[in-house]
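New to this. Explain these tokens.
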Amino acid sequence: MTKNSSAITIVLIAGLLWSFGPLVVRNIDNAEQIPWQYLFFRGSVIFLVLNIYLFLMEGSRFTKNYYKIGLSGFIGGISLGIANITFILSLTSTTAAVTMLSIAAMPFMAALLAYFFLKEKISKTTLVSIIIATFGIIFISLDAEGERSLFGLANGLLSGLGFAGFTVSLRWRKETPKFTTVAIAGLFTFLFSTIVIHQNDLDFFSTSKNESLFALHG
């Protein structure tokens, strides 16, 4: 029970910190026009900060973690990277409420993925919650007017699915180096956004204010 209480407290703190994301986006100038520059900086900062943390905690041997991640860590990193990308695309396309409520379906998506891939049972309470959440998302989609809003809603749901995949990957093989998996997500976000920026001949940089907010969110 002590471990369970600690875990709940940590997750609540994580949720509180995560909820500042929309606030950061709303203070970015023309955020809807520069999502890939946003992702370029955010992904690189995530990768850099986590590797610095791992170096301080484990020394130079932290690089060995990249050889230990295995298939579960690779899938988890890519899933989290996709979640990061679609999260920003959603936030810069629709309201924060639509994005965050779409992502709130993540626990139920994780429960379904765990049921199919890890054979974990779904309780009746969880099943009822999944049904209620599904109706909530349907009502949101009916209220989402315009092509951009629907695009944001779809990306919000994809982000929730990506987070669910990351969560299930950690349950699949618990000895996977977790921080290294998150670092891989940052690297994937950085590389993917670099390709998109290059292919579309976009500028890599924005204003100093925007870049500071990109990094802060990372």
Remarks:
- The longest helix spans residues 147-172.
- The chain has a mean pLDDT of 85.
- The two ends are 33 Å apart (CA to CA).
